[in-house]
């Protein structure tokens, strides 16, 4: 039985956010179907507005799908809400917290929601593992954003859920927290917990996730193992620095970050063509290298596919 099963999930918001009247409905999820197996470390990737948080809200039972359904270990998140909810530990994207309690109190209250008494041994372990041990008695409003994020993670885990869902847990947090968090989540995954993660950091997803779905405007465009995705990249990447503006013919194909230019390179002839074009434009080229495509290259390639055309890949 899959840990999570998304079955033809559609979600239409009556009015798109920030839309002026007349209200236009917005299809945030468009027939999303895939399963996540028990014990997987699964990545859900997509640009802002792709529908990642909406999918997680539907999974967590916080938002109702317009059609389709979601099962957690076979329990329907709507019809069998309490059972499904107990199986899930959800770390929300938004920092929501109750400012009146200290960290330990917040975690005890959360344990209470699940009917768990005397949870202090596990709460201590959570505090320790997340680098919060010295903050146990600190009031929630005194904590920095990064520390609040750690408490949200601890809160999601008080009932030792078999399925852990993290919605952009590392957006805007420091490197140290990212390391602590990943070590801890990877350990839980090794112990058998299923992990569903959304992130903007593609190198994080590449390092951690064994399988990945890529979402754009509510549709799954790619779904495969991380290694299959990396293998599917159509090319290597030619990377160099320039001291001026790239000729327009190359600019449309290139990924440009400041002075760094990266171009998909299918072979020696193409590399020669690129470098000749840059030379003819009178630009000085430095630090030329060729590297293997990474997940970010694959992501950009997938996102550039035509709408409706699924990424050709064995699932
Ligand atoms: N409560 C809402 N009402 C109307 N539109 C919404 C609401 N929540 C999200 N949306 C819209 O749905 C789309 C998907 O949003 P979201 O799920 O937050 O994407 P992501 O998490 O991938 O950035 C966006 O266009 C967003 O503006
Ligand atoms: Mg989101």
UniProtKB/TrEMBL annotation:
Keywords of this entry: ATP-binding, Cell membrane, Membrane, Nucleotide-binding, Transport
Annotated InterPro entries: AAA+_ATPase (IPR003593), ABC_transporter-like_ATP-bd (IPR003439), ABC_transporter-like_CS (IPR017871), ABC_transporter_ATP-binding (IPR050763), P-loop_NTPase (IPR027417)
SMART domains, sorted: AAA
Pfam families with a match to the protein in the record: ABC_tran
Superkingdom classification of source: Bacteria
The protein's name in its UniProt record: ABC transporter ATP-binding protein
Gene Ontology molecular function: ATP binding; ATP hydrolysis activity
Domain ABC transporter: 4-242
């Amino acid at each position: 039985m899959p840990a999570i099963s998304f079955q033809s999930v559609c979600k239409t918001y009556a009015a798109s956010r920030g839309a002026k009247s007349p209200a236009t409905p917005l299809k945030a999820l468009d027939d999303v179907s895939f399963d996540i197996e028990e014990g997987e470390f699964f990545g859900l990737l997509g640009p802002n507005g792709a529908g990642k948080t909406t999918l997680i809200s539907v999974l967590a039972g916080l938002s109702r799908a317009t059609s389709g359904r979601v099962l957690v270990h076979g329990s329907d998140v709507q019809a069998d809400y309490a059972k499904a909810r107990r199986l899930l530990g959800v770390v929300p994207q938004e920092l929501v917290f109750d400012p009146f309690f200290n960290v330990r109190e917040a975690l005890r209250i959360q344990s209470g929601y699940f009917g768990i008494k005397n949870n202090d041994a596990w709460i201590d372990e959570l505090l320790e593992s997340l680098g919060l041990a010295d903050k146990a008695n600190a009031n929630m409003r005194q904590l920095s954003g990064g520390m609040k994020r750690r408490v949200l993670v601890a809160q999601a885990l008080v009932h030792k859920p078999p399925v852990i869902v993290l919605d952009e847990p590392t957006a805007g947090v420091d490197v140290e927290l990212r390391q602590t968090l990943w070590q801890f989540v990877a350990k839980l995954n090794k112990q058998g917990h299923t992990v569903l993660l959304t992130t903007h950091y593609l190198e994080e997803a590449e390092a951690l996730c064994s399988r990945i779905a890529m979402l754009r405007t509510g549709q799954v465009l790619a779904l495969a193992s991380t290694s299959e995705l990396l293998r599917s990249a159509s090319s290597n990447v030619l990377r160099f620095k320039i001291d001026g503006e790239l000729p327009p013919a190359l600019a449309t194909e290139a990924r440009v970050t400041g002075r760094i230019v990266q171009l998909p390179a299918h072979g020696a002839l193409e590399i020669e063509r690129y470098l000749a074009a840059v030379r003819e434009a009178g630009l000085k080229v430095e630090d030329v290298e060729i590297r293997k495509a990474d997940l970010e290259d694959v992501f950009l390639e997938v996102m550039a596919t035509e709408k409706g055309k699924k990424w050709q890949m064995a699932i």
